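quick q for whoever's on today - can somebody do inverse folding on this one?? i tried earlier but teh output was garbage lol. tokens:
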């Protein structure tokens, strides 16, 4: 009988040892990695669920990075808006309380405050995170607002800034005679006082007449408490026949043979270029000296022989003199302030900005023209604001599978543009301390600045913008909290599929090590066995 060698009969023992070693290596790897397997194939029936859970966790990580970036951008934008809100309060307070005391530069302390705040405002609206500008809409690689100094002073002699635009508009509105483009005259009778708007050009020109000037103050209404006097409301004078351009308007008061009583008044109301109204009130008076804002009632000459009765025509002439002086005061005071506000609107609220047509002297200007980048500073370089394309929608980010947030902004949104414009105009206007009308001009400017910086119901405010961005932040926070919980649940489920019980694995390793040691010893003895030893 043939006898086989030991190795042939004990090969199955070597295979068993290799299996034990493989199991030991797998368990050691599990203990070090904390996972059942390094491949999905080793995860068993839960492999599909594990793949889905890992994809979900990867998405959450990606969304988390996005939310971090957006939160940073929104936080920086909100800091800019908060500073803009503070500037609003500072300048509005300065306009209300600064008074009309001028320094050697022709400005009030309130205007000095506005100048500093204007430069700060431009910096706030040019805020950026990394290489992304936040207030340019979809244009994120260019500063949305032109440098503050260029906005104010232009770019060299050929390119006008806000100060030059204001100066040109001032001359066009006040006019060469300083009467706000109006004419005070005697009316159809000696007892009539008339005030009319001036012409843009000859109304009787052919083939097409040109209507009243677009500049200056416009007639609104006239009223009186003088019993028996007759007023004529603003009427085209003389009337034209369509399609001819309308002639300028005139309004008047006819004393109609009546002598006013002490304290009777005549009121003339005008529309200003900025949409506001101003009223001149003249009071009949027999006092000497004549108080401000009054016109003299003719007393006649009762001591003459024969006595001279009071004259309505002389009283009307006195009214005309008083009205002329009052119109000039209004033109160089409130009208000048309203003109500056309107110039600011032409500069900031139009693309391209509007300029006064023609060259000096601008007091005779007849029209406006659009500026070009070759002759006028364009203050905004971002994407234009549009009611059909909301600013918030210019920056949209997906923060979850079904959730997006909008956080875009434009520096020319109504709230920001209106405030920047108002602060800029307040800072740009200068007045000579020797100008007899300076106090009236500054007082009217202060009043308009304060009113324009007030929150108007129904109009966008900086607080509205902050609230919208706060809504985006709240959505991000809520989403982040929910994703944190989802990630924790997914991790728990994934651990149940891919994870191990360290104690269990350690116990198995010890058992395998014992079995493997025993196998090694048995195998060693078998390999040392000989026929002599066996017998």
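ok took a stab at it. sequence:
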């Amino acid at each position: 009988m043939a006898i086989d060698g030991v190795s042939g009969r004990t090969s199955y023992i070597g295979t068993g040892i290799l299996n034990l070693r493989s199991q030991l290596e797998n368990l050691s790897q599990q203990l070090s990695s904390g996972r059942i397997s390094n491949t999905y194939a080793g995860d068993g029936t839960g492999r599909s669920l594990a793949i889905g859970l890992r994809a979900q966790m990867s998405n959450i990580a990606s969304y988390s990075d996005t939310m971090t970036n957006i939160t940073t951008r929104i936080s920086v934008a909100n800091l800019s808006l908060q500073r803009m809100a503070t500037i609003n309060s500072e300048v509005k307070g300065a306009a209300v309380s600064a008074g009309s005391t001028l320094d050697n530069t022709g400005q009030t302390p309130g205007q000095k405050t506005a100048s500093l705040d204007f430069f700060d405002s431009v910096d706030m609206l040019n805020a950026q995170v990394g290489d992304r500008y936040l207030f340019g809409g979809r244009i994120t690689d260019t500063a949305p607002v032109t440098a503050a100094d260029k906005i104010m002073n232009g770019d060299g002699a050929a390119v006008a800034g806000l100060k030059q635009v204001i100066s040109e508009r001032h001359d066009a509105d006040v006019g060469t005679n300083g009467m706000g483009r109006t004419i005070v005259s005697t009316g159809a009778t000696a007892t009539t006082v008339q005030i009319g708007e001036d012409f843009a050009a000859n109304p009787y020109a052919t083939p097409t007449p040109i209507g009243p000037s677009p500049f200056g103050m416009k007639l609104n209404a006239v009223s009186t408490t003088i019993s028996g006097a007759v007023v004529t409301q603003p009427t085209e004078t003389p009337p034209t026949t369509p399609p001819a351009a309308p002639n300028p308007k005139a309004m008047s008061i006819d004393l109609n043979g009546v002598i006013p009583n002490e304290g009777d008044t005549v009121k003339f109301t005008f529309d200003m270029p900025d949409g506001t109204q101003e009223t001149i009130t003249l009071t009949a008076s027999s006092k000497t000296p004549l108080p401000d804002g009054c016109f003299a009632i003719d007393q006649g000459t009762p001591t003459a022989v024969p006595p001279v009765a009071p004259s309505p025509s002389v009283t009307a002439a006195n009214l005309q003199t008083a009205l002329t002086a009052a119109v000039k005061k209004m033109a160089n005071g409130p009208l000048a302030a309203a003109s500056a506000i309107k110039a600011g609107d032409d500069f900031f609220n139009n693309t391209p900005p509007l300029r006064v047509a023609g060259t000096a002297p601008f007091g005779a200007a007849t029209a406006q023209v659009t500026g070009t980048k070759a002759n006028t500073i364009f203050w905004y370089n971002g994407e234009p604001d549009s009611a059909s394309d909301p600013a918030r929608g210019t920056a949209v980010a997906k923060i979850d599978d079904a959730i997006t947030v909008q956080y875009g902004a434009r520096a020319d949104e109504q709230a920001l543009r209106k405030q920047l414009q108002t602060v800029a105009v307040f800072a740009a206007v200068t007045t000579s301390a020797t100008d007899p009308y300076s106090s009236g001009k500054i007082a009217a400017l202060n009043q308009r600045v304060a009113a324009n910086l007030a929150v108007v119901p129904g109009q966008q405010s900086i607080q509205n913008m902050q609230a919208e961005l706060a809504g985006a932040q709240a959505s991000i926070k809520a989403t982040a909290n929910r994703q944190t919980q989802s990630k924790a649940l997914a991790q728990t489920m994934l651990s149940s599929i891919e994870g191990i019980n360290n104690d269990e694995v350690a116990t198995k390793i010890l058992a395998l090590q014992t079995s493997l040691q025993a196998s090694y010893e048995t195998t060693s003895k078998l390999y040392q066995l000989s026929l002599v030893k066996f017998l």
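fwiw The first helix runs from residue 6 to 9. also The first strand starts at residue 128 and ends at 129. so keep that in mind when u check it
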